[in-house]
Amino acid sequence: MYINKIEKFLVEATLLDHTNNDAIDISKYINSIAVKKNYISESFPLFVINLMTTQIVRDKMRDNEISINLKVSKYTDSNAETTEDSAEQPVIDEVIIDTTIRIYEKEYNTSSQKIEDDNENEDNETTSLQIIPYVLVGIPDELVLKNAQVINEVYENAKMNDIMVNVLSSVEKTEIFIDSSDNNDREKSLVIPSLNVIPAIRYMQDTYGIYNSSLGIFFDLNKTYLYKIFNKNREYRNTFETIVVPANDIAEDQKFMTPLFDEENNVRLYLKIVPDFITNATVNYDTLGETTVFNSYDFDFDPIKRVYTNEEALNKKVRYYWNKNQNKLFEETFIDESIQIAEGTGISLSNVDPNYFSVDTLYTISTQNEYINGKYALIENSFMIFTSDYIHYNSLVHLKLTKIK
Question: Residue 288: how many CA atoms within 13 Å on its side-chain side?
């Protein structure tokens, strides 16, 4: 049974000044936290922290080596009119972010000016609180440290699935999600040179072959993902079902744009209109090249030809593809993926935990248009947690989905 619930958030943040060995509670200064998870081109979530702060704290962040301890908790909002003056504190359901952000980009210049109020006492901090904007950009330090570990291993007579588990388990102590490898052969001798974790995984894909299509690896806060980006046969943990309701079927009490949840955290969303569906954007993969002169060989040095014929065109064209990576699995790569068209959509939700949506969630869209109906892959999860009272935060989650053909 699906039910509606509104989730809100509390933010706690501590500025760690490594230069002066000092720490300051900056929770009251945070205006918003934006997080971008791009599951195709990136391997870490990117945090953008927007603050409205004092000149003293701004200078401290700007001039010193710093990091931020960040904790975000969620609670179910049973009273939509909860305010800063509410006597009753919300009951926390779950901590969704608890990490240390390593800062690698700061906003060094600002045109804003500090405002003083001569009527306030020097001891009253409200005088100079939220008055100077400042932006910090970084990624979770724990994820950087995981990838910083060096992998240098030799495996004999081993299956690729076992090798992947062994490599990731050496750096990841929490949950791991791995799409099963398309390489079912036993590798008689697989050598990983001295590389960090992410380059090591990509080296295995290029040299030995993990998947017969593009690979993704993503270190998230609560899980590490190693996956086949366009996987039609993945075993999913949860579902996110988007249903476009025909106008003549709309009930008066039907809620739209508000997600519904069941006991297993499966999500359902009803929409009145079909979300914007974008085409004409080619997804480029660095797995196959295209040439008019064929030049590819198998492991026995016999020529291999992979041909794509455009049968639908008036003037039939034949393209010849060559394999950049020279491993047997990529010689079996589906040609249609090398010319995959990004046909997809963006869906926005508010006041919901962004952690409901991940790589191992099944995304489906149901409409009266058969062309749009089907399974979708999550390629980006961007969300913002923001506030107007610096205590109770709302969320805005934007999912970018692309259709799995």
Answer: 27
Closest CA to 147 of 49, 33, 45, 266: 45
Please answer whether residues 44 and 144 qualify as being in contact, where contact means their C-beta atoms are separated by less than 8 angstroms. Answer: yes
Token reading at 146: 């995981």
| φ, ψ (nearest 5 deg) of residue 66 | -135, 165
149-228: what CATH class?
A: alpha beta
* Token couple for 157: 């007579």
Each residue of 303-338: pLDDT tens digit?
A: 444 444 444 444 444 444 445 555 666 655 544 454
CATH superfamily of domain region 3-140: Trypsin-like serine proteases (2.40.10.10)
What span, in angstroms and rounded, lies between the C-alpha atoms of 379 and 400? 6
Say if residue 273's pLDDT is above 70.
yes
Token pair listed for 258: 């508000």
Contact 326, 295 (CB under 8 A): no
Give the residue range(s) of CATH 3.55.50.30 domains in the chain: 149-228
Distance CA 192, CA 3 (A): 49
Estimate to the nearest angstrom the gap between the alpha carbon of 384 and the chain centroid: 13
- Judge contact between 340 and 308, C-beta under 8 A: no
